Amino acid sequence: MRPFAKRNAMTAPESSTLQEEPGQRLDRAAVFLSSLCLLHCLAIPFALLLGPLSGQWLVDTETPVHWLLLAIALPISMIALWRGFRRHRSALTMSLGVSGLLFMFIGVSHVFGESWEIALTVIGVTGLLVAHVRNMLGQHRHD
Prior knowledge:
single chain
């Protein structure tokens, strides 16, 4: 039993170096949510082609789903972006993320009309997605 204990003791430092940074889980969750929202937005044109019932259901649920995803994404993204900003000091990443959230809010609140909801949401989600990926990779120290 002693050799097994030594083996674990020897491998422990290696495994501890593979742990995520504190904000990475939030960034990963935000990337997942952003991808989900993007898929939902981009599925509408295809669903309309496939059948009127599925397409109409997606159109009818577009705004409520966007409000729900925004309500979930807002606190997660703001915390993850703030942690990333404190860690990397990248104004570009923070600007991308905040702009993305703003575009999403403008789209879902129909400031420019309901017809702009999908386009503004896709732009916002894409910006937010890029910001979270930049946070996760940490490759923006020289902005």
